Amino acid sequence: MTKSGIKIISDEPGAGPWLAKGDRVRIRFDCRLNHGEYVMRDADQFVIIGDRNSIAGFRYGLEGMRVGGRRTFQASTHLCYRDTELAAIPQNAVLIFDIKEIEVAPRTDRESGVEGE
């Protein structure tokens, strides 16, 4: 079940494992405004599932995905930037994310709590 403010537009479940809290994942995605203008194309990011380093709309839209899956979802303004205006994102923008590729990646020493010398 998706959180309030997230609307799944299309979903192709992957055959891999479910994403779990704490997984470090590599995600390739597009982000566009509700009227179609792209904010990011083919962005390639690493995120930790369950951390708060991404906007809530992006994090919540990933919930329930499996490795290898694809999903397009809409995130309401209250889960994005609200009344904050950024260079390419106007105030109160509804964002659409198109998750094109998702895979679990090994955690770095820093992320796993191992300290270097």
Summarize the structure.
By secondary structure, the protein is mostly beta strands.
Question: What tags apply to this protein structure?
Answer:
117 residues; single chain; 5 strands; mainly beta; Chitinase A, domain 3; five-stranded antiparallel beta sheet; globular
Seen as an oligomer or otherwise, the chain set is single chain
The separation of the N and C termini measures: 44 Å
What is the annotated CATH architecture? Roll
Q: Enter the CATH topology name.
A: Chitinase A, domain 3
Q: What is the C-alpha radius of gyration, as a whole number of Å?
A: 15 Å
> What fraction, in percent, of the residue positions are helical?
under 10%
CATH class: Alpha Beta
Number of domains: 1
Give an overview in words.
- By secondary structure, this protein is mainly β.
- The protein has a single domain (6-107), classed as Roll (Chitinase A, domain 3).
- The protein contains 2 helices and 5 strands; from the N terminus they run βββαββα.
- The protein is globular and about 35 Å long.
- 18% of the residues are buried.
- The mean pLDDT is 89.
Note the topology.
Elements (H helix, E strand, L loop, with lengths): L5 E7 L11 E10 L4 E11 L7 H7 L7 E6 L19 E10 L4 H4 L5
